[in-house]
Write a structure and sequence with these properties.
Strand content: under 5%
Radius of gyration: 22 Å
Structural class: mainly alpha
Helix content: 40-55%
């Protein structure tokens, strides 16, 4: 149990942090730029059902 607390848990934590850093950094090098905001589209096709209207 002592080995797991002192060796395995810190290594797993560091690996997860490095993976998250690489994954977020890789977004800048992708062909489709994910840094731009998502397009806003009308999700209702018939325009008769809109939210917050009686």
């Amino acid at each position: 149990m002592q080995f797991i607390r002192q060796q395995v848990v810190p290594i797993v934590t560091i690996l997860i942090a490095i993976f998250a850093l690489v994954a977020t950094s890789a977004r800048g090098f992708m062909k489709t730029d994910l840094a731009q905001p998502a397009p806003i589209e009308n999700i209702y096709s018939d325009n008769t059902t809109t939210p917050n209207q009686p």
